Every structure is written in C-alpha cells, then in structure tokens.
Amino acid sequence: MTNDGQLTNEAIFADKAFEEESPKATKWLTAENAYTVVEPAAGFEDAEAETGEDGEEIPVPQDIVAYDLDTLERRVLVTSEQLTPDGADAPLVVDDYAWSEDRRRLLIYTNSEQVWRVKSRGDYWVLDLDSGSLRQLGGPDAAPSSLQFAKFSPDGKTVAYVREADIYVEAADGEIAQLTTRPTDAVINGIMSWAYEEEFSIRDGFRWSPDGERIAYWQFDTSGVRDFLIIDNTSELYPAITRIPYPKVGETISAARIGVVPSGGGDTVWAEPPGDPRQNYIPRMQWAGSGDSVLIQHVNRRQNRNQLYLMDAENGALTPLIVDEEVQHLDDFHDVEWLDDGRAFTFVSERDGWRHVYRVSREGGSVDDLTPEPFDVASLAAVDEAGNTLYFIASPDDMGARYLYRTTLDGSGRAERLTPLEFEGDNVYDIADDGKHAIHRHSRLLRPAQYRLVSLPDHAERQVLEDNAELIEQLAALELGETEFFRVAARDGLEMDGFMLRPPDFDPRKSYPLLMYVYGEVAGQTVRDRWAGRRNLWHLLMTQRGYVVASIDNRGTPSLRGRDFRKALYGGIGVLSSRDQYDGLTALLDERSYLDPERVGIWGHSGGGSMTLNMLFRYPDSYQVGVSRAPVSDQRLYDAIYQERYSGLLEEHAEGYVEGSPITHAAGLKGKLLLVHGTGDDNVHYQSSERLIDELVRLNKPFDFLAYPNRRHAIRQGEGTELHLHSTMTRYFDEHLK
Fold first, then answer.
1. How far is CA 180 from the centre of its chain?
2. Where in the chain is the domain with CATH 2.40.128?
C-alpha cells in the first residue's frame, strides 16, 4: 500500500502486508474448566521468525498455555524447553497437538507436509508430562514426515497412526505393532483415496473404539482405477511423473470397505454391504456409541440414496437403520452425534425440503425433526446432552450471513438465535464439550475476523483472543467505496443474491466497467458477508482502478434457500446456471445506468473458471473480457464422485454432459479470453485446458494462455506465483476492458 491509501498487487501478494492473524490450535480442556492455545514463549511475544544462513526459517519458540474459563488466569502447561528434543538446537514447531484423556501425555504434530489439499503427513512426538520425556513415534526406520493421523487410544497409553498406507499401534515403551498389511500397492488402509478426500472432505481413515479394544478403518482397493499422470518438466533434467488413481466420469471407481481389527493385533472382521463395492460409496463411518458396533453410511453411485447400517464388530453382520433418499442427489454426508447412551443419534437430512437436524432412534422406530422451522440449517455446531441443547448455524433471512441458534434435543423447544445483532455477517463457533463456552469467530466482507471467548447461551464476551486491530487499521486507511448486497430477478421471477463493490470516488452519473466474479456451481457460494482475505483485497484494488466489482449466486449454489434451489442444476450443470448469470447481468445493467454494457468482464476459478468460459461462449455479446482459471472445459474429464453426483450417471444424462460443458460452445467466443492453468493440478487436470486449446485452435479462435509449471489447483505454490498471477489479471483487464 502506498501512502495515498492505494492498494498494490505487491503489497497484497509479495509483502503480505494485509495478513490476518488467528489463535493457533485452541483446544478445550473441559474437565479442567480451561482451554489451551499455542503462544510465543516468554520473551518472544513480539518476535518474528528469522531466516538462518542456510535459508531455512528459524521459528519463534512456543509454549502451550491454558486459560481458566472462570478467572481467565493464564498458566503455562508446556514450555518450549519441554518441546526441545535431546540434543536439538531448537524446540519442535507445533503444527497441532492433542491431549490424552487424563492430560498426562501430549501428542505433538510437527514437520508437516502437504498431501494434496492439506498438510496431513508429518512427524509425531509424545511428551510424558510426569517424566518429562519427549519421544518421537515411528521407530528408528521411519522416514521424516511419514506418519499420518496419529491419535491416542482412549486410555492414552497407546498411539495409532498410518504409515505407508498401513495402520500401526505404538505403546508407551516404544513397541510397535503393525495391524494391517497391504497385499498390493493398489490397496490402502486407514487413509482415503484421492476422490474421497477431495469430494467427501474426509482424510483420516480409522477410528478407535470407545473402549480402546478395536480399531475400525477404511480399506480401498484402487486396482482397476486408471492412473492419471502428472508430469513435472522443471524440477529435474528428465520429467518426473506422479501417478494418481483418479476415477473420471463413467470409469471404474475404488472399492471401499470397512473392517474392524483388534488393537492388540489379529484378524480383521469385514462388513459386506449388498451390491457391487465399485458401484457404491462409504462416505462416513464411526463407532455407534459403544465398542460393539459401527455405524456405516452406504451410498449408491448416483448418490441419491444413503442406507445407514449398524455393523456388529464381532462378526461383521449388518443391521439396516434408516434410509435417506432424494430424487436428484444427496448434497452432504455428516457424522452423527450419539444421544441417550447410544440409543439415539442426530441425523442431517433435506427430506422435508429444508436441511434439518433429526433425532433418530437406534432401533429406527422414530425420526423426529428437531429444527422444523421453514429454513435451512447450515451446519450442526454442537450437542450438549446434559443441557438438552442442540446448537446449530443458520440464517433464515440473510443468505450471505451465518448465526448461532439453539433448540432442544427432545423436540420440545423452538429455535432461538444466540448471536447478538451487533455481529452481523459471518459467525463461526468452536463450542466446548459441555456447551458452556465457545471460541467465536466473526467477520464481514470488508472486516477481517476477530476471535472471542464467549459464554453460552448468553453469548457474553469473556476474552478477546485476536482482534486483528492492526489489519483493521490498515484497511481503514485505504480509499474504499461503498459495499452493497442486493437481489436481482431471473427471467422466471426467481430472485438471486448478489454483492457489489464500488470505486472510492463513485459518481452515479459516470460510466464504469463492470467486473463479475463468478463460481456458480453446487460446491460454492460467492455472495457471503465474510472476509475472504487476498481475494477481497484484489477486488478492492480493482475498485480503486475504476471498476465496479460484483457477484451473483445463481440457483444451484449451496445457498440457504431450500432443497429445490440447490438441486435445480441436476443433470445439466452449466445450462441453467449460465442462463441465470446472464439474466442477473441483464437486470443489473437495466437497473443501474452507471454500468457500461460495452465493458463487462468476468473471472472465476475452478467451477468459476468453467462458468467464465460458459458466459463468454454462450453469451458473447454480453461479456467482452474473461479470465478463466483452472476450468473444467469438458465435464467428462472430471472426477466421478463430484460430477456424477450433480450431473447424473453418464449413461443416463449424456446429453446434459455435452450441453453443460463449455467446450461444446467454444465457437461462440468473440471477446478476449485469458486461460490460466497449473500443469501440476491434481484436481482439475491440465488436460482440461489442453483440450479446450485444441478446440479453440481448430475453430481459429484467438485467445491468450498462461501455464504455471507444477502449480496445483490453487495456483499458489512457488515463489512469486500469486503476485505474477494477479498482476497478469490486473493488466489483462486494464488493457482490454478499462
């Protein structure tokens, strides 16, 4: 940022001058009426990480401290000295940690490395708080950063983890036992296949039983799933190739099954649900409130039917519970919360047209709606059985906001909003086990997050954990225009939500170029009143350069507007959604004379990249410039779980796949197109842009293209990448739209 209040790409993406701060690794210690958090060690409160002579970052020493929930008294539980291994020059960097049930042992996760989306592989250490010993798990032959998902047994004496796709347990004396053995490299235990991780948002593939006697786990057989090859042409003299079993639309999917193995070693007992395992999914599994049975959610390949089973842990026998079923598709799959000593559980369903939370008896005799009001539950936040309270997130009247509500677990009460009116916008809660306190995160579109400790249900502020005051002050010094949330109507009268950012010196008598930000698919909602970090900042930069920036959520996006709104795109993603986007743009231009219809740009990433292409190709007279990042140009190229869920099975909806794919309509391109893709994208493969390029060449259509070597889907990896990408986007719109 310069002294005159103007943003620059260098300040946002190189200097990182507007970075948001957050508390690190807060955990509840309900039994001690406290919460814990990682903080800089004494004497290093204002220190920043330094770079050593070898170029490696020297981290700031850390302590793990506790705050009493009554008095807010601060006490250090674990010092940086205790976190320093014998003979080491520096303490461990705590990426995450977990307490044993008796709080006498601490499991420390460090040296983490990225596996696809998140850092889910690293080193684990156990600190014995009685003896002070600090011991690394995995044994002497374990490679650095090779363990995944380590967790204490219920009694805290043993740790289970995944190493090279097999499950191990390690005792306090260092003795290691291998519980599973892969028959071939195509079989993996205790971790997820690529598609499950990406589309079911699940990574950790095993669960301790409540009594610690058994471990339930996923096993995947990826044989028959064709490998997608990602080629790295820049790291070595010759290309390096990464192989990922990746099931594309209509192709063979992994066979998933659930097994239960004794934690002391022995044979696995397998569940055998009906049907071909390569035509079904198991997106959720958990112990059923005790150590004698496992709850399995078994979903057909179309993903419109979810059969819940109880698996007998002794013999694998399955007992059917309830079925959740839709005509089109089921959106999300959730773990349940067990109630009444395992005799009932919560279940999230859209069966009555809204996403509601139900109480289901274990015997399946009753299914009671706990949130029967005519609005959606965004998510279940917590269950306080002792207080007969269900906490959930919703926003009945403002689709861009999220608020905390509560109701009763016995169905006797009505929903009550707990988030005070002063916290308009986005609210996220991490609620303590006893339901009496929460870490509250609040943000708005142009206001970074602030973190508070609040008591419940009165929502009284007890402590500010992070106020981001410095960042808020920086933003206040910027020259910014007005923000507006609005609604526009589609041709059939459906109202769609939108937001608009205007230039700082906005004059409604003048004419402005319009830059539309789009996603438009079922996996994302753009019109949210929440802080979105650097993307927000880049949009503000563009308003300072004279653009009006806007976004609209077409039907089919995951807005809290009921089942029918969210399911409207089934069988033809890209068809109705692009029409809605066009209708929204038309309404905006008709209603607001200051928007120049001859200067309309659009940009989006992933599904938004696909929508950008659809708008340029289908409505070429309405969009003059577009930047499409990492798009799916042909829906048949994407993974089976996502695309088949929303577009239907290929053999049943072949026409929808063709009609909904941007590549089908490439002949319509008239305006300026910048196509951007990372060659190392494991999610939307570089292949997708190559196919589109081939078609545009065949059609003799001019376009611009930028490939980022080895960058993954987010196009962030590598020094200077984000700065280069956004500087290029800024120049492109300035040259062709401004």
1. 29
2. 26-173
Give 179-335's CATH code, choosing from 2.40.50.220, 2.120.10.30, 2.140.10.30, 3.30.565.10.
2.140.10.30
pLDDT tens-digit profile of 709-736?
A: 999 999 999 999 999 999 999 999 999 9
Q: Does domain 478-736 have CATH number 3.60.20.30?
A: no
Angle at CA of residue 173, ends 170 and 177, nearest 5° = 30
Q: Give the DSSP letter string of 72-139.
A: --EEEEE-TTTTS-TT-SSPPP-SEEEE-TTSSEEEEEEEEEEETTEEEEEEEEEEETTT--EEESS-
CB neighbours of residue 544 within 10 Å = 18
Q: If you count them, how many residues does the chain have?
A: 738
Q: Domain 26-173: which topology? A: Lipocalin (2.40.128)
Tell me if 515 sits within 8 A of 601, measured CB to CB: yes
Distance between start and end Cα atoms, the chain: 22
Q: How far is it, in rounded angstroms, from Cα 308 to Cα 314? A: 18
Residues carrying CATH 2.140.10.30, the chain? 179-335
* Backbone angle region of 385, left / alpha / beta, with phi > 0 → left and psi within -120 to 50 → alpha: alpha
Q: What is the pLDDT of residue 45?
A: 78
What the block records as the tokens of 698 is 């065949």
Helix axes 607-618, 576-591, angle to 10 degrees: 70
Residue with tokens 């059917």: 320
Q: How many CA atoms lie within 13 A of 706 on its CB side?
A: 16
Residues of the chain with pLDDT under 70: 1-3, 49-57
Is residue 374 reached through a cis peptide bond, with omega within 30 degrees of 0 on the bond before it? Answer: no
* Cβ–Cβ < 8 Å for 85, 98: no
49 burial class (0-12, 13-18, 19+ CB within 10 angstroms)? exposed
pLDDT digits (tens, 9 = 90+) for 176-205: 999 999 999 999 999 999 999 999 999 999
**Among candidates 150, 102, 155, 151, which has minimal Cα distance to 129?**
102
